Amino acid sequence: MAIYTCFDMVRDCRGNRPEGWAYLVTNYSPVIRRLLAQYYDGRPGLLERVLQQLMNPQSTLWAAPGHAEERIFVCALRQELLRLVELDAASQPPSIELDLEILTQALEPLTVIERQYVWLESMGYSNELTAQMMNLDVSSSEAARARADELLRNVLDQWRRGLVAENGLTLGRLATGTLGERCLPAKAYLDTLDGRITWQHKKDYEFHMMQCWYCLDHFCRIREADFAINKSKPLSEEEASPLIAKLGVVLPKKEKKGLLARMFAK
Ligand SMILES: [Zn+2]
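^ thats the input. predicted complex w/ zinc ion below
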């Protein structure tokens, strides 16, 4: 029996088949819940609302071929979640605005690892979670962020603590707008995370990321996706069934048993 995968889900959702939606709910609502809590803690009822909105075969989320790789899919899913929730009710703008030019200027002395600590701060991750995501110790994250704060303070007329985190949404939007021809494919980051790269590639990737906020953001989002998947457990059949039914997904009776067995075979 072939196991049902993310690849099958993307194909089925594109074709508006109930199997795809059922798999999305079962496997990815825990990831979605985690991401919503990260960015919109306290806004009630979001999970069902965004699931409804994602269940649209025309959504750009289902159009991209690369999304068959689970982490690439979750990385794109995160962007779509933020877009949908912001459309629903936009977050407060930052009190003092940062932009990429300011960051480039201020953070010039920071290494590529230190920049990732700072970027993950902009994504709202605590030092503890960041250390787990980066597989490094908490004190390195604390030190890099304190240093970034000082560096920003030096170039800004107005400064206050927490500016980086406050500007996360803005910086994320600015960074995704700077995709260039030489930007790295998601696979480069997956290979890096999985330790499948040569020393030369690592050097090349780091060299590029030092000059490109798009790629630094992209790498941090891949790290986030990897982490969110690892920390989330798919719903059990008992948990998934009521939610699937509530969302109006009707699985074909005849195939239901075999399909669920394939989905829960992992
Ligand atoms: Zn780039």
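Residues 18-40 form the longest helix (23 residues).
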